């Protein structure tokens, strides 16, 4: 049924047959109680989806239904929490049966039973049940309040029971406290029932009681309660009391728009007939005032005051109820008093009030406007406040409040579009349209953006006067505004192309978004200003930029950060605008603006350290970058030295900042350095200033040896960002430093990749300036050595970062070399592909995916084609070119390892692939171990009839064992025992465990040892082996051997364990081990603890 929640009316054709089917089960005497409860549960679900007001009308309400429903409800247990749906539906059903047009006393019959006991009248029974369920803690309480409203408003009941019930309710209100759960529930039931009674009852019947109830409600002071539901019900009851005290008249002075045809608005958007003019303005106001002139009860002032207080409540549901109450009560007031209510509502829009008051005020204005109670004469006062509410955003600590205010302001604009004729809103169209567009595009909250888009759409359709409304709606629809980046960088540019919206959008970004508390909003705002600059370049240069330069040096940190970034983006946008005509950027700017831009970093130098530095350093570096790219005329200016110092200091001071800010500082400083060198450190094209070249390269190479890790990272990134002319004749110096420090940090590997890409390839070139025949082997050797970095610390396998960086560098350098001279790769390509195959077979999913992707990129590369790849044709058969939509998922062991194990058939890849598989098979992750082992065993099954392949595989495995005897990383994974090389395996095992205390290694090799756990595990595994292979020993001693293995306490005393060990050796025909003796200072002694 959930799919009908949005459009429940679709259920209407089916409600009757569903209801009849379920009632048939309920009425059947053969239906067991669980089935009856289940049927009522289904009825509740249908009622919840369609709404109880509609659904309860379909319930049968014949005279014959009264007694069965009442009897069934009487048999229910109010404390049974499993069947509350049954009681809820029965109460609704009973409330419908109370509508029968007969006196209930006629249904009583003889009130004396056959046994002589007096029976309770139906009227009293229903009232008793209603009272009892008004104090329960489940949803039955809501249904009981509906029952009360239907039952006590009957003519026969209200004459006899209404006064008593009101006394009972007021007693509960006055004597019950809301400090306990029980008291809250009782107050809830009493307030609900009273609100329902005053809503559905006739005014003449309840007018006498309204002052008394209001007086009791005032004494209860529910506005001060901590329970939201009680405050809401208090507001609801107050407004119902106010409506009871006032005559039920529809105000004749209210504004009536007349025809609201959407089609008429679209077809004739500018035609306004005289009949559409407000009758109030043509003298009808006085006549309406005379007709509506009657005495207003004194209590109404109290009612309105409580409703106005409710508009400022901290909970939305209370404010919403108060806003609806304001609209309902105001509709029955004379025009003078109604205008006073509007004035009181407008007082909520003060910046001394909280966001709750602003939100409540917007809801109230929307209700007043929707009902025609906000006269057009008030629009000049209301519209400016709504425009402020659309931009309401107050910072509170690390966040802000005001989302609900902006959302409700959009609702006001939506309501006004439906309420007023276009001629009334015509003076305010430009302001409202601009404000809604700004909220649609620039608001931080997606709900507000969508609400503003909906309000704009409603105004376009109903008013027909919004400039370019259809064009804007086509792009800024409900789904398009869901992406914030798309709003700032795409939609805003399109809307700003319409001159009515250009300057308001720019002004809003400068005033509200450049200094926003959210860093991402500030950055998006600066990018938006960059994109909007071509729409109004003169306005940006002459008006906006001076404002930003002032903000860049004020006390607000967020304002400084955003203003500096905005200056950078605007300058670069102006440069790009003038570059096609070779117009320098200084033609757009005044001399004062140029001078202020040049000296910004000096004015904010005190903010470079500490928390402020985390924002100011990246922003100033971005400004340096953009001004360098914009070719500002600062060549040979001393300011360049200050810029360079700031960049260098940022890279050397990374350890002073939080981890979250370091990456941004590094990236901005490196980008600024590259642009600065490109523009200001060339004496002529592609020729570096020798002094700056020597200074920078020497400085950054020295920084690579710094004891501070982050300083080394920063200097490595700086070296990698230098342009080609800056590292020419310095390449060998950089390469030698990299060789000595390559395994310290993955940033050094990235450094090499960037340096080689910058230097370029020249086969016969100088090794000090190019990647050439004399140094390419050394470069590949350094990168391939990094593939063996398996450093671990408390963070895990940190060497994987180095291996991944090395793989990326190998790919980039390979493509660079192949594009120039493929023959340079001859000795290195095979080792590179083998190392990638090894990494693609290892256990870390991320590394395996990275290696596998690079392996396939090199194999499938067409432009250029990578030569000298061993077994290219066989590899293409194993890894055919796949569709982009269906790539091989290297992170999934189930997909990767079946392909990887096929490389074992290729001799040149077998050693490295098996080396990687050894790590995966001996890993800890269940899925990796499972799929790698299964794929390896499948491969072995495929070659078990090929003796040559088996011998080759065995020899390779033994070679891996020999090469890594002291490396636990590979020894744990060698758990293979097959074919004729078991003796070699045993010999290598003995060699591998000498002086070892690694329990996992010892357990994996299955041999007796001095450790308790090893002895116990070994005995258990020997026992299991003998159960599987019962023909390896003499059957005559089998039982005795098995008993010895299972009954001996192998964790006991060494002397006892040794005797059992010797007895096993005798039974198995194995020579008894002897105590190992060692010579110390010429004396022989037994090695302690050795069996």
TrEMBL record:
One of its GO terms (biological process) is bicellular tight junction assembly. One of its GO terms (molecular function) is GTPase activator activity. It is found in: Cell junction, Adherens junction; Cell junction, Tight junction; Cytoplasm, Cytoskeleton, Microtubule organizing center, Centrosome; Lateral cell membrane. Residues 266-280 have a biased composition (Polar residues). Pfam families: ARM_TBCD (PF23579), ARM_TBCD_2nd (PF25767), TFCD_C (PF12612). The keyword Cell membrane applies. Keywords: Cell junction, Cell membrane, Chaperone, Cytoplasm, Cytoskeleton, Membrane, Repeat, Tight junction. Residues 266-288 are annotated as: Disordered. Its main location: other. Residues 230-470 form the Tubulin-folding cofactor D ARM repeats domain. InterPro entries: ARM-like, ARM-type_fold, ARM_TBCD_2nd, TBCD, TBCD_C. Residues 831-971 form the Tubulin-folding cofactor D C-terminal domain. One of its GO terms (cellular component) is bicellular tight junction. Belongs to the TBCD family. Found in a complex with at least ARL2, PPP2CB, PPP2R1A, PPP2R2A, PPP2R5E and TBCD. Interacts with PPP2CB. Part of a supercomplex made of cofactors A to E. Cofactors A and D function by capturing and stabilizing tubulin in a quasi-native conformation. Cofactor E binds to the cofactor D-tubulin complex; interaction with cofactor C then causes the release of tubulin polypeptides that are committed to the native state. Interacts with ARL2; interaction is enhanced with the GDP-bound form of ARL2. Does not interact with ARL3, ARL4A and ARL4D. Interacts with beta tubulin. Interacts with TBCE. Tubulin-folding protein implicated in the first step of the tubulin folding pathway and required for tubulin complex assembly. Involved in the regulation of microtubule polymerization or depolymerization, it modulates microtubule dynamics by capturing GTP-bound beta-tubulin (TUBB). Its ability to interact with beta tubulin is regulated via its interaction with ARL2. Acts as a GTPase-activating protein (GAP) for ARL2. Induces microtubule disruption in absence of ARL2. Increases degradation of beta tubulin, when overexpressed in polarized cells. This is Tubulin-specific chaperone D. The lineage of its organism: Eukaryota, Metazoa, Chordata, Craniata, Vertebrata.
């Amino acid at each position: 049924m959930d799919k009908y929640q949005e459009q429940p009316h679709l259920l209407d054709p089916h409600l009757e047959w569903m209801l009849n089917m379920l009632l048939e089960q309920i009425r059947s005497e053969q239906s067991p109680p669980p089935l009856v409860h289940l049927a009522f549960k289904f009825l509740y679900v249908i009622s919840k989806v369609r709404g109880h007001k509609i659904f309860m009308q379909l319930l049968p309400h014949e005279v014959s239904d009264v007694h069965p429903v009442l009897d069934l409800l009487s048999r229910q247990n109010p404390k049974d929490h499993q069947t509350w749906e049954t009681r809820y539906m029965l109460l609704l059903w009973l409330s419908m049966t109370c509508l029968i047009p007969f006196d209930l006393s006629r249904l009583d019959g003889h009130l004396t039973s056959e046994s002589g006991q007096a029976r309770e009248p139906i009227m009293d029974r229903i009232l008793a049940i209603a009272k009892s369920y008004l104090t329960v803690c489940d949803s039955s309480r809501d249904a009981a309040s509906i029952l009360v409203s239907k039952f006590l408003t009957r003519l026969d009941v209200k004459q006899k029971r209404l006064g008593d019930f009101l006394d009972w309710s007021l007693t509960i209100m006055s004597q019950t406290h809301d400090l306990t759960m029980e008291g809250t529930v009782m107050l809830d039931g009493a307030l609900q029932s009273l609100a329902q009674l005053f809503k559905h009852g006739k005014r003449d019947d309840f007018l006498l009681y309204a002052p008394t109830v209001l007086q009791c409600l005032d004494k209860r002071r529910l506005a001060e309660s901590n329970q939201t539901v009680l405050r809401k019900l208090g507001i609801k009851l107050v407004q119902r009391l106010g409506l009871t005290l006032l005559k039920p008249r529809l105000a004749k002075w209210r504004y009536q728009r007349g025809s609201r045809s959407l089609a008429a608005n679209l077809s004739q958007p500018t035609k306004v007939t005289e009949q559409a003019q407000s009758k109030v303005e043509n003298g009808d106001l006085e006549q309406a005032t005379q007709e509506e002139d009657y005495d207003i009860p004194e209590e109404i002032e109290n009612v309105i005051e409580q409703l106005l207080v409710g508009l400022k409540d901290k909970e939305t549901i209370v404010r919403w109820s108060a806003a609806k109450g304001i609209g309902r009560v105001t509709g029955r007031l004379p025009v003078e008093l109604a205008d006073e209510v509007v004035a009181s509502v407008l007082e909520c829009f003060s910046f001394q009030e909280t966001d709750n008051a602003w939100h409540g005020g917007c809801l109230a204005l929307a209700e007043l406007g929707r009902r025609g109670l906000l006269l057009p004469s008030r629009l000049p006062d209301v519209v400016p406040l709504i425009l402020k509410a659309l931009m309401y955003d107050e910072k509170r600590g690390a966040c802000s409040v005001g989302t609900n205010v902006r959302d409700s302001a959009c609702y006001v604009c939506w309501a006004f579009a439906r309420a007023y004729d276009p001629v009334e809103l015509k003076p305010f169209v430009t302001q409202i349209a601009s404000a809604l567009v700004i909220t649609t595009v620039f608001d931080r909250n997606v709900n507000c953006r969508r609400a503003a888009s909906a309000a704009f759409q409603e105004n376009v359709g109903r008013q027909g006067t919004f400039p370019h409304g259809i064009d804007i709606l086509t792009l800024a629809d409900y789904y398009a505004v869901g992406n914030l980046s798309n709003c700032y960088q795409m939609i805003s540019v399109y809307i700003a192309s319409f001159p009515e919206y250009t300057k308001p959008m720019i002004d809003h970004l400068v005033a509200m978004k450049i200094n926003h508390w959210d860093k991402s909003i500030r950055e998006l705002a600066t990018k938006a200003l960059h994109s909007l600059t071509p729409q109004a370049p003169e306005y940006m240069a002459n008006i906006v930029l001076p404002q930003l330069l002032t903000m860049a040096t004020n006390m607000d940190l967020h304002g400084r950060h955003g203003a500096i970034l905005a200056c950078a983006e605007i300058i670069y946008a102006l440069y790009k605008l003038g570059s096609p005509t070779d117009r320098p950027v200084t033609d757009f700017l005044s001399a004062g603006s140029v001078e202020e831009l040049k000296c910004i970093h000096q004015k904010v130098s005190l903010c470079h350290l500490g928390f402020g530095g985390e924002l100011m350093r990246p922003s100033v570096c971005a400004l340096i970058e953009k001004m360098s790219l914009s070719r500002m005329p600062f060549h040979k200016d001393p300011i360049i030295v200050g810029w360079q110092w700031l960049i260098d200091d940022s890279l050397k001071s990374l350890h002073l900042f939080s981890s979250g800010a370091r990456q941004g500082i590094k990236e901005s400083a490196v980008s600024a350095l590259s642009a600065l060198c490109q523009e200001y450190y060339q004496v002529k094209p592609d020729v570096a200033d020798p002094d700056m070249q020597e200074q920078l390269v020497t400085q950054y190479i020295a920084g690579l040896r710094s004891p501070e890790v982050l300083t080394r990272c920063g200097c490595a990134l700086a070296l990698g960002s230098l342009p080609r002319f800056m590292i020419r004749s310095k390449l060998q110096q950089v390469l030698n430093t990299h060789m000595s420090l390559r395994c310290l940090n993955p940033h050094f590997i990235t450094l090499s990749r960037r340096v080689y890409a910058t230097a370029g390839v020249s086969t016969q070139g100088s090794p000090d300036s190019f990647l050439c025949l004399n140094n390419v082997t050394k470069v590949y050797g350094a990168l391939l050595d990094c593939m063996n970095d398996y450093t671990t610390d408390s963070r895990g396998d940190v060497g994987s970062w180095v291996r991944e960086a090395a793989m990326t560098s190998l790919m980039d350098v390979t493509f660079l070399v192949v594009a120039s001279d493929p023959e340079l790769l001859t000795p290195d390509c095979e080792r590179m592909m083998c190392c990638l195959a090894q990494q693609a077979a290892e256990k870390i999913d991320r590394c395996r995916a990275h290696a596998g992707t690079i392996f396939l990129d090199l194999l499938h590369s067409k432009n250029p084609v990578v030569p000298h790849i061993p077994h290219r044709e066989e590899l293409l058969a194993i890894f055919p070119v796949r569709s982009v939509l269906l790539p091989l998922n290297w992170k999934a062991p189930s997909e990767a390892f079946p392909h990887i194990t096929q490389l074992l058939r290729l001799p040149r890849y077998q050693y490295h692939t098996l080396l990687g598989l050894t790590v995966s098979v001996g890993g800890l992750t269940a899925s990796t171990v499972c799929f790698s082992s299964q794929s390896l065993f499948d491969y072995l099954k495929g070659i078990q009839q090929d003796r040559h392949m088996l011998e080759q595989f065995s020899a390779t495995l033994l070679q891996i064992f020999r090469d890594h005897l002291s490396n636990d990383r590979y020894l744990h994974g060698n758990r293979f025992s097959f074919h004729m090389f078991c003796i070699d395996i045993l010999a290598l095992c003995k060699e591998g465990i000498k002086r070892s205390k690694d329990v996992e290694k010892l357990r994996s090799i299955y041999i007796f040892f001095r450790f308790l756990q090893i002895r116990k595990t070994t005995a258990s595994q020997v026992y299991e082996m003998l159960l599987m292979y019962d023909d390896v020993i003499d059957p005559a001693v089998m039982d005795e051997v098995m008993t010895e293995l299972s009954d001996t306490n192998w964790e006991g005393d060494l002397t006892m364990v040794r005797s059992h060990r010797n007895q096993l050796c005798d039974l198995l025909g194995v020579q008894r081990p002897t105590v190992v003796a060692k010579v110390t200072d010429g004396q022989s002694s037994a090695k302690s603890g050795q069996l």
